[in-house]
């Protein structure tokens, strides 16, 4: 069966912090022919792993890379890689995803009042600026 999953299913499958839900999440994900994981789900996933579970950037990055490498997982790979680049540069995964999707939709310059996000995007070669 082809499925899509909510963030809480991914979290339970990765953290195994609830025996019943963790087992159910692992089972449905291993049995699925295709697991569709949306960008909002991944943004929440990263937020929960970093803030709630207190995992390191490298641990979170590896969790996402494991999903990218799984044969039965479908994600917007370029957007996920943009999010990973931002995360690994010290920023927020979601900012990388948002900037990428904006470019994909035709935006030429990413604007944000988040000075750190703008600086990191510029550092990794993405056009970004702060509104005057």
UniProtKB/TrEMBL annotation:
PIN domain mapped to chain residues: 5-116
Highest taxon in the source lineage: Bacteria
InterPro entries: PIN-like_dom_sf, PIN_dom
Protein name: Putative nucleic-acid-binding protein
């Amino acid at each position: 069966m082809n499925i899509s999953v909510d963030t809480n299913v991914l979290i339970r499958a990765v953290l195994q912090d609830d025996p019943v839900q963790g087992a159910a999440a692992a089972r449905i994900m291993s049995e699925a022919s295709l697991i569709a994981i949306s960008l909002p789900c991944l943004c929440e996933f990263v937020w929960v792993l970093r803030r709630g579970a207190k995992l390191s950037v490298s641990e979170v990055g590896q969790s996402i890379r494991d999903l990218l490498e799984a044969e039965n997982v479908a994600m917007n790979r370029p957007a996920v890689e943009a999010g990973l680049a931002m995360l690994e540069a010290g920023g927020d995964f979601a900012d990388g995803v948002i900037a990428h999707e904006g470019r994909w939709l035709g935006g030429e310059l990413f604007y944000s009042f988040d000075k750190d996000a703008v600086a990191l995007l510029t550092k990794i070669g993405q056009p970004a600026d702060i509104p005057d």
